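Design job #97: recover the sequence.
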């Protein structure tokens, strides 16, 4: 189907339920899903003239929905979550441009991580900082701290686990206090 043969409405309306289901799977929230689908349709209608006749309209709509999701606050939160023990892996999805939202999220994430690291015992804090901030090799850390490499590796593993647990607790407590504030308001 091409834009001339069916028009936007004829092509897009039959996809509504499928797009909504996909949006709900991505967001996990009915209101956000509705907003996401509405924004997807608005962007698709605006860009309909750029749709290439003979290509897959359904895939085009899903791509718009996914890209729109990735540039929303919900999508940014989800895509910027990276396991701390995945040393060699980058984030699964990258956000292309710095927006005010991404800058704010980065700053708040940095503050959250920094304050959690500050709560760690000194031997965990120093090993994390030497490895992650100073980017020292295990050998360099072992020499700096005058401990065997095995101790460096096990201490680093325990430090990462402790940091993960602290961050998880803070995020859970933060979401609980936000939920409480929302239900009170």
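Job complete. Output follows.
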């Amino acid at each position: 189907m091409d834009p001339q043969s069916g028009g936007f409405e004829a092509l897009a309306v039959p996809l509504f339920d499928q797009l909504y289901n996909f949006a709900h799977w991505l967001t996990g929230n009915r209101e956000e899903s509705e907003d996401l689908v509405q924004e997807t349709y608005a962007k698709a209608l605006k860009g309909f003239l750029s749709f290439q006749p003979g290509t897959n309209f359904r895939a085009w709509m899903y791509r718009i929905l996914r890209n729109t999701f990735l540039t929303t606050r919900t999508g940014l939160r989800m895509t910027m979550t990276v396991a701390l023990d995945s040393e060699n892996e980058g984030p699964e999805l990258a956000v292309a441009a710095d927006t005010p939202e991404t800058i704010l999220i980065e700053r708040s994430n940095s503050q959250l991580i920094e304050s959690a690291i500050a709560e760690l015992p000194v031997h965990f804090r120093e090993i994390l900082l030497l490895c992650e901030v100073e980017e020292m090799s295990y050998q360099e850390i072992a020499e700096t701290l005058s401990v065997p490499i095995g101790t460096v590796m096990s201490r680093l593993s325990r430090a990462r686990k402790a940091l993960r647990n602290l961050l998880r607790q803070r995020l859970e407590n933060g979401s609980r206090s936000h939920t409480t504030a929302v239900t009170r308001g």
